[in-house]
Every structure is written in C-alpha cells, then in structure tokens.
Specification:
This protein has 30 helices and 36 strands. It is α+β, with helices and mostly antiparallel strands. The two termini are 83 Å apart.
C-alpha cells in the first residue's frame, strides 16, 4: 500500500511502516477475502463507491470487524490510478447486531414455547384488546365454547352477550381499567356451568385464564353436606363427643358437651377446657392424655368436670385413634360420659342382707338370692330338689345366668338388669333339670333393698309351669302355622318380623326379607288340579327351608306366596346369595302322579334398616322390589333400591293419567316430516303421540310412559292413535295432498293380544288407506321379551300385506344385526345419540357410515333421527345418507297444519 494513516495502525496494532511490505489482504479473515474482493470489483466496474464489512486479524491475534468505504480514482482516460478509502472499526456495532439477531431468535423461540404451553394447558385462555376484541383464543377455549370459533377480532359481547349480565363482567372491567389482576368464581347463567376465571392485565388489554369447575363445586357441596350430616349425627349421640387432630389439638365438641359445661360454643377448642377440670384431677388427666398421644394407646380415665351449675361431676373419658392405611394416627375421637350418680351410688352402697332362711325353706317354690353381680348366694331346699343342679355349696358364687341354657340367657340377663333398675321382672323360660327332664319355669325377680333404700340383692322365685306351657304351646302352634306346608302362617310371620326388626334396631344389626312368588302356580292348578298344586307347595316349602340357616325364618303367606326372614351370623349375611340358592332350588321339577311339574319363582328382597324403618315398611319395600322384577320379566331375585319406590309412585301416577286420557279419548297425533337430506323434499311423516289434559294442556308420551308396559292400556292408546292417524290421512288424500308414508309407533305390549296385524288392517280398510302408505315403527325391545314369536308373526303379516316395517333406535340395543336377519325390516332409524356426536366423535360417525353401508347392501332404507343443524345434514350426505328428520326440517305439528307445511320449501337445505 502506498499510504496508510495512523488510524490504520491503531486499528491493526501494527506500525505504519509495516505496511510497506504488507498487503491488506494478509490481514483479512480467509473466509471473508473472496466475497469482499468480489463486492469491490463489482463496485469498480459499475463506477460506484463501495462499502463492505469484514473481519481482520489484530496484531494481538483477536478478530475485529471493520467497515471499508472507498472508491477508484481514475485518470482522464478512465484508467484506474489507485483506490482510496476509509476503514473504521465496527466490531461493537457488529456484535450488537449479532446479539440483536440472537435476541430476536430467542424471542421467537420463547413465543413459540409460550404458544405451545397455552395450547396444551387444561385452562381455557383468551386475550382481549382495550376495545374488548378477541386477539387470541387457545384450543381449549374453542372446545368449551364452540360458537367462538371465528371470534378473533370480534367484540366479546357480540360473541357471548350473556357475559355482560354475569358476575364475571365487573372483574373484567376492573382489570382493564386498573391494570390489577382479578379472580372470579361464579355460575354463568347463559352457559349453564360454574367457572373460575383469573384475569391478568396484558400490554394491550387483558388475558383471561378460566376453567369449568362444575365437578369441583359438586364435590365441595358434597363435602359440606357430609360434614353437616356428620355433625348432626354426632349431636344426636347421648354422650359428650369430642375430636382432636393427630397432635392432640381439640377442634370439635358436640352440642351435649356445651350443654353440660355451660361454656360458649368454640371457647374450649385447643386446651380451652383445662380450667374446667377439678384441680385434683387436672394433672392426672393430662398425663394420661399425653401418654396416649405418645403411644397410640386407647385413652380411658375417670375425672371430675365443672358442670354448668358450678358443681363438679364425675365423668368417664374415653378416646380412640383413627389411623390411615399406613397405620399412622390421623385423628382422635373421644367421649365423656356422666357417671356421677353411679360413682356416688357405689361409694354410698352399704351392703345389708336380711335373710329369713326359715321362710324361704318352707316355700314349695324354687327361691334364690342373687348378689348384685349376678352370682348365686342362696337356693332353698325346694329349689335344689326341683332343679337337680347339685348342692348349695356347689352352686354358690356361680353366675345365675350360667345355670340356664344358652338360648335363655339373654332373657335371664334382661330380667336381672330390670330388677337392678329397681323394677320387678317376670319371664317364662325353658331350663331342663340336672338329669335332663324338660321344664318350663315362671320366674319373678324382685329387688331387695337395704335400710338406706339401696338395692342390695335380688329375690328370685321360680315355679314349675311345664304342664300349662305344653298345652298353651299346642294351641299357639295351631294358630300360627299353615296346615298344608307346616310352615308358620302370615300371623306368625308378621309377629316374627316385628320382633326381629326390633332386635336388630336394639343391636344395631340388620334383617333381610325375601318375598317369594311362584311364577306359574296357577297353571299347575288349572291343568293338573289343586291336589297337584298342594303337593308342589309342600315340596317347595321343604326346599326353601333347606336353603336357609337355623336362625332364619320361612312362612307361607297364603296361596303361592312365601316369605323368608334372614338374620346375620357374626354380623355377616348374603341375602342375594340365599335368594339365588332358593330360586335355583325351586327351578328343579317335582314328581307328581308319574309326571314332572314345576313353577319357578320370583323373589323380591329388602334389608332393614337400610331400606325401611319399620317391619311393615320393610314388607312394602320388598313387595316393590318383587313388582319391579315382575315388570321386567319373571324369574330370579331383585333386591330393593331407593329408585324403585320413586319408580313405583311414578308408574302409578302415569297409569292414572293414561286411564284419564283413554277415557276422555284425548289422543292427538302430531306429525314430524321425514325429508330427503339433499333437497329438503318431504317424503313422509312420523305420527307422534300427544294427548291433551284438561288443565295441563298438551302432553308428550313420557307423561304416560308406564302405560305402554300395560297390555290393556297400551292396546287402547294404540287403537285411538291409529284411528286418529288414519282419519287424518284420509282427509289429506281426499284433498289430493301427497304426504308420503306415515309412520306409527307400536309398543311391545300392543302385540300381546296376537291380533295386532289383523286389527291394523281392519282399521285401514275402514278408512280406505292403502297399506303402502303406512309404516309401523318398533324398537328392539319388542323382540327381547316373551312372545317374540307373536311379534314375528304380526310383522310377517304386515309385510306381506304391504305395510313397511321400521326398526327404531337402531344400534342402541344388543342384537340389531340378528333382527335384520330374522325379521322383515324395510327401514332402520339411526338413533339421535349418534347424530348428536357426528361432528366431534369419529367413532360415532364411523358407526353411522357402517350402518348406512350395511343397510344399502341389504336393500334397507336408512332414516337419521334428531338432525338439528346443517353440519349434521351435510356430514350425513357425505356418508351416504339419503333420508332424515329432526328440528332442522320441522318440529311435530298438529294435523291441520300439515297441508300448509307440505307446500313449503326450504332453499337452504338444497345441496
């Protein structure tokens, strides 16, 4: 180079004289030399200045960025004399540019990551600018509110107008105005759900994070209800109840605690009850409690507490730990029982016996003196002779209860307890003598008091009543048993059920009742006579008895009805297993007069006190379960569930309404069009049952649904419906109106008379209705009940006569394909549940497409039900659908509105 400035020396770290023998290219980074030279050459050729940035090596070895600006100096003829220019250090500028580019890449990566997070979060997220327009919505928001799919750029109130009247609007506005985050949790009336929203200010508006919290709200409400029920239950316990945390902090006392202490509610939480201990008992009670907390041992101690009257009363404190699955203590539950009177009585008791043995020995009755602890102190000579139990010395000190058979000991103990409560007790009990002679005794237990009026001992006088008892037992047995089966009768059953439920209530136990109804017993009597029926009843009684335990009870209630009362053994029993065993036992044939007969059985069961509060209610509940079983088909066992009672009441109400409708002939068919999906052209109508109540107005079929299970009511409603439909169709035909095929629904019970087809043809003939204009719709249930052969015969006759057969609710049952094979089906109707899910459920759409393909191969028409929007219509067309019905095409209308409706067209339905 011919000249370089001192600045170049500073830039490169080399002295100026070094450039006399040094080319500038020697300092350039090898990767930059060719591109720099090319850019300079291009500038010279084009006669313009050049500006290029590149890297050079500083004398220290580091790389620096420089920018060279220059031009070619030419002579008059245009030849280049030399290049002149200026080189400046742009290392810092270049580093800043690179950092900026790297920052932009980082920002883009962060934005992408943030977008992925927002799209994958379980929360719904959207952003609004200050004009309340949507600037962002994540996929979860679109799933929660499908109608906001195209909302970007639109004001939120134009998309969700109900928001302005909701509790969410105020925090939205507050965050937008104050730029302070807000939170809201409320029920959204317009959307019908509970939501939780977190509103945060953003640079140009707000961002909202929200989620549907219906499940959480339901769970919280359930917890609150459960806690309230728990507290109510504890408040009913006739003891003072308290609970603590695992660390011993007291956080609950029952109502009775505050009634006893007179302390304000909540004032004794923690160790607040320390001051109501008697000073002499305080440290002892706390030491015992601390030991239980450390060891986990049960807590039990007697101490005195200050009563609301100011006096100290003795109480018995107990506590038990509640442990989790790992055995760790999570809570303590305790009680305090007022035992003040008992302690005083024990402390004041002074034993005093006034025995007059001479009088006792002179009596012919068996006389005993029993100590307060229930042990024998004395038996007179007549008693030792009558009972043959041994000598007085061998019996003294033995518990009197132990001298009785096991079955009688509870009664004996009850009499002791009664007498110790200062009441005379009397009972009759069985106890054989020491040599085994059976004896019945009439026993009177009387308290003996000392001079202070306290019960010191008990006087027991027993008299032999064996002869009288045997005579009474024979009369009683005859009055309480059935002569034919030798089982207890209804009277004995009712008494036993009362007693059993009473015992269960006292023992906090359970009782199960099974009602048994023979399924075809009348048929046996009608075909073989009452002798055969009586023989069958006798055998069945034995079989039922053999299926139950020794403590259980079976009775014949009358006719072909039996009842079994089951009591748990060691707290366990299985009514369902016992019922199934009885059903299985009764399903076997019985030999009579050289042939085999059988009836089978249906069982309804209920459990006390789970299902009923009294014996009489238990019987009614079990009968409801039996009725529910028979409604669905005889045979087997059905245990009661709470919904059965409601179903029984609802069924009775619906049957009553149905009888009113039939009596008033209030049936009014309404018609819903069936159309070609592609054109909207009406090809037929479905006649839908409506009936008019005198005060409630027009009613739908669900108000009388139970009537369609009743063969007589179903047939009467079906007759009225068919006559009204045929009259309407006749009127339309007379007007020259073409309405296509009319579909009429038929309930399974309508086929039970076995003349459904004949009656239908007769009514069609009365009104001169061509059979090809009528379509009968049935569901799969018509094939599943008994009498499917009757149904098959009716459908074959209808098919042969030109009436079309449609299978409704296709795909919702269990045997659809076999029905298409075994019965004459012209049309299948795809259930609305599949159509509803077409747009969002690929599985549902695949099923619909498969059904259409199958029906097409079988030559069967397909009608899609419940089409409510144009998207569903178009999806059905894409999958090969041709016919459909639903609110998109029209709601059910009265007969007088049909002519005008048939004349309408709907251009928007044309594909």
């Amino acid at each position: 180079m011919s000249y370089v400035s001192q600045g170049v020396a500073e830039l490169t770290g080399l002295p100026v004289e070094a450039f006399e023998n040094l080319a500038w290219q020697d300092l350039m980074h090898p990767d930059d030399a060719s591109s720099v030279q090319a850019e300079i050459d291009e500038a010279i050729i084009n006669g313009r200045p050049f500006s290029v940035a590149y890297r050079i090596f500083h004398d220290s070895g580091e790389l620096r960025w420089v920018r060279e600006r220059g031009r070619a100096v030419r002579e008059a003829g245009g030849d280049i004399l030399y290049l002149e220019g200026m080189i400046s250090d742009v290392t810092q500028e270049q580093n800043l540019r690179e950092e900026s580019e790297q920052s932009q890449l980082s920002v883009k990566a962060y934005a992408k990551q943030l977008s992925e997070v927002l799209e994958s979060t379980s929360d719904c997220v959207f952003s609004l600018d200050r004009a309340w327009r949507f600037t962002y919505l994540n996929g979860r928001t679109l799933g929660e509110f499908p109608r906001v799919a195209s909302a970007l750029g639109h004001n939120i109130l134009s998309v969700l107008p109900s928001l302005e009247d909701s509790p969410f609007w105020e925090p939205f506005q507050r965050t937008m105005d104050t730029r302070q985050a807000a939170h809201c949790e409320a029920f959204m009336e317009g959307l019908g759900h509970w939501y939780e929203a977190h509103i945060s200010p953003s640079e140009d508006g707000i961002t909202v994070f929200f989620r549907n919290i219906d499940d959480r709200r339901l769970a919280e409400e359930a917890v609150r209800e459960r806690e309230a029920r728990h507290k109510t239950t504890l408040d009913q316990i006739p003891q003072m109840v308290w609970c603590t945390r695992a660390d011993g902090y007291h956080d609950y006392y029952s109502r009775l605690w505050y009634d006893f202490t007179g302390m304000p509610e909540g004032s004794t939480d923690g160790e607040g009850w320390n001051d109501i201990f008697h000073p002499d008992d305080r440290e002892r009670a706390w030491a015992k409690w601390r030991n239980s907390l450390q060891t986990g041992e049960h807590y039990e101690i007697e101490y005195r507490l200050r009563h609301r009257t100011g006096e100290y009363r003795w109480v018995l404190g107990r506590a038990w730990p509640e442990r989790d699955a790992k055995g760790e203590i999570v809570r303590w539950h305790g009680t305090c029982t007022d035992i003040h009177d008992k302690i005083l009585a024990q402390n004041a008791l002074v034993e005093s016996q006034r025995l007059q043995e001479s009088v006792l020995e002179a009596s012919a009755d068996c006389i005993k003196i029993i100590r307060r602890d229930g042990t024998v102190e004395f038996i007179n000579g007549s008693g030792l002779l009558a009972t043959e139990l041994g000598t007085l010395a061998s019996l003294m000190g033995k518990p009197w209860v132990s001298l009785w058979p096991e079955a009688e000991r509870a009664t004996v103990q009850k009499a002791l307890d009664c007498a110790l409560s200062d009441n005379k007790a009397r009972f009759s009990g069985f106890s054989p003598t020491g040599s085994g002679i059976p004896k019945w005794w009439d026993v009177v237990v009387t308290p003996i008091k000392d001079d202070q009026g306290q019960i010191a001992r008990l006087l027991v006088v027993s008299r032999d009543i064996t002869a009288q008892r045997e005579a009474a037992d024979q009369l009683k047995w005859a009055s309480e048993h059935d002569d034919l089966t030798r089982l207890p009768n209804r009277k004995a059953f009712e008494a036993h059920l009362d007693a059993t439920t009473s015992r269960a209530r006292s023992a906090d136990s359970a009782v199960a009742l099974l009602l048994i109804d023979l399924d075809h017993f009348k048929h046996v009597n009608d075909t073989l006579g009452h002798v055969a029926g009586d023989h069958l009843l006798g055998i069945y009684a034995q079989r039922i008895r053999s299926m139950i335990g020794p403590n259980d009870f079976v009775a014949r209630l009358g006719g072909d009805e039996f009842a079994v009362v089951l009591e748990p053994i060691d707290g366990k029993f299985s009514p369902l297993a016992t019922g199934n065993a009885i059903v299985e036992s009764l399903s076997g044939p019985v030999e009579f007069d050289g042939r085999f007969i059988s009836a089978g059985a249906s069982l309804g069961g209920a459990i006390f006190p789970r299902d009923a509060d009294t014996a009489s209610d238990l019987f009614k509940i079990a009968d409801i379960a039996l009725y529910a079983l028979k409604e669905g088909g005889r045979g087997g066992i059905r245990m009661f569930h709470s919904h059965m009672r409601e179903e029984a009441q609802l069924a009775a109400s619906q049957l009553s309404l149905a009888r009113v409708a039939v009596t008033a002939q209030a049936v009014e068919p309404h018609y819903q069009p069936k159309v070609e999906l592609a054109t909207g052209r009406i090809v037929g109508m479905e006649a839908l049952l409506r009936w008019r109540h005198e005060t409630r107005g027009l009613q739908t079929p669900d108000t009388v649904f139970e009537a369609f299970k009743d063969y007589r009511l179903a047939a009467k409603i079906g007759d009225l419906m068919q006559r009204r439909v045929f009259q309407d169709l006749r009127n339309w035909l007379d007007q020259g109106l073409s309405v296509g095929t009319i579909s009429i629904n038929a309930a399974p019970a309508e086929f039970l008379r076995d003349d459904f087809a004949e009656r239908l043809f007769s009514r069609m003939a009365e009104h001169s209705i061509p059979p090809n204009l009528i379509e009968i719709e049935v569901t799969e249930h018509v094939f599943l009940n008994r009498g499917s052969d009757i149904v098959g015969r009716a459908l074959e006759l209808l098919n042969q006569g030109g009436v079309r057969i449609a299978l409704d609710d296709f795909g919702t049952g269990h045997s659809s394909l076999s029905h298409l094979r075994d019965f004459p089906v012209d049309v299948v109707k795809i259930d609305k549940s599949f159509v509803d899910r077409l747009a969002q459920d690929r599985g549902a759409r695949a099923i619909v497409s498969a059904v259409m393909g199958l029906a097409s191969n079988l030559g069967i028409d397909v009608v899609a039900e419940g089409i409510e929007n144009d998207l569903q219509r178009r999806l059905l067309i894409e999958d090969g659908g041709r016919l459909g019905q639903g609110y998109l095409f029209g709601r059910p209308i009265a007969a007088d509105a049909v002519p005008a409706h048939v004349g309408l067209s709907n251009p928007r339905l044309v594909a």
